[in-house]
Amino acid sequence: MNFIILAIIAATQAPNGSPWKTAEQAAESIEKSEQGYVMPDTMIEELNAQNVWAVYIENATGECVWHSDNLPDTVPLEYTVSDIANLTRGYIDGYPTFTGEGSNGLMVLGYPKDSYWKHMWPSWDYQFIANLPKTVLIVLAINIFIIFLIYMAANTKLLKSIKPITDGIQALHTGQPIVLKEKGVLSEIAANINRTSEVLQSQNYQLRKKETARANWIAGVSHDIRTPLSMVMGYASQLESNKQLPEDERKKAAVIVKQSQRMKNLINDLNLASKLEYNMQPTHIEQVNVISAVRQVVVDFINLDISGKYPVEWLTDSDLNTLIINADKDLIKRAVSNLIQNSINHNADGCTIYVAVKECNRSCNIVVSDNGVGATDEQIDKLNNSPHYMVCDENTSEQRHGLGLLIVKQIAAAHKGTVEIRHSKYGGLEVKICLPL
Q1: What is the C-alpha to C-alpha distance for residues 66 and 56, in angstroms, rounded to an integer?
Q2: What is the rounded CA–CA span in Å between residue 254 and residue 236?
Q3: 3 state SS of 405
Q4: Cβ(437)–Cβ(424) under 8 Å?
Q5: Neighbours of 352 (CB within 10 A)
Q6: What pTM was computed for the model?
Q7: Whole-angstrom Cα distance, residue 309 to residue 289?
Q8: CA dihedral 396, 400, 404, 405 (to 10 degrees)
Q9: Torsions phi, psi of 351, nearest 5?
Q10: Is the pLDDT assigned to residue 395 strictly greater than 50?
């Protein structure tokens, strides 16, 4: 752009015809007659318009044989060879002069003193001219290199200021305290990040206090209820087994025992769900043969089903005897137990429960299904997608499913697994726990 602007300025400064070209035209236009040399009026008018005087020097004598009417008095009328050499490259009495070759003489035009500047000693070293392209490229390369250094210096300084800020922004979600130096161009951003970190730290502290208080309250209530509940269950059991009481009274005592046991299980579930939610339940991860662990739970339920109202069928492939996962064995057994108990709780008229362990796509699938009453599509969608009131403060009136499924989901999440609830091919409900091998 600089070169383009320079060319435009040079073009606008140059006259329509250069002085050298005008001098040649004047030399060609002058003619010799019987009265002497004569210049056409049009050429004289053009010279007068530019305030230019002119002399015509004869080659043979070096004398001025013609001159314009506006010739200054200080301009000589006779010239030597050295005078002609000097005026050709320079001035006459301060007037910049330009020459044009005539048929038998030399036309000299003198322009106003402040119209042109002439370089009187135009000489350049040949090697300089020969090496000019290479010199220009070297200068250009040096300029580019210097610009690159300036860019790198500025960019490095900016990046040095930006990197702590980007690191701080990326670290905000971790909950760690962030303290950035509040100086430089980006000091205001660093200050705002520091303030944000302080607010998040305060909020996290308050949240941890609430979570701890909530978990401790649930644990305390659970502990405090156990003692009176155990007494109720003990006395109710005595009344149920007392042969002296009427049959109706003994049945009522049996209901008390059953419902008290249900309350005890609910309290245990509530306490476990609270601990899992706040990561207060220690997990003992070890290599577990999941087939053996699940089979043990199935056998326990089969032994408890004296009436045969809830038969449990083991559908695991007989060739699959070992399937190792890294897990807490007790928690895995608790999850399977909850699923079987869930089928029992929601099918008062009885049902068949099917349990299977499968290996699929480098994962272990534990599937518990039944042929009971099942659930509607809407209920299954809520079970899969709606959070439990234990872990959500919104729409608690709509979340009425028990803690059993919540604990199953929490146990699966603690083992980096997932839970899927859907219709069973047997007509009831099916729950699949997917755990990584």
Answers
A1: 5
A2: 7
A3: helix
A4: no
A5: 18
A6: 0.47
A7: 29
A8: -80
A9: -170, 165
A10: no
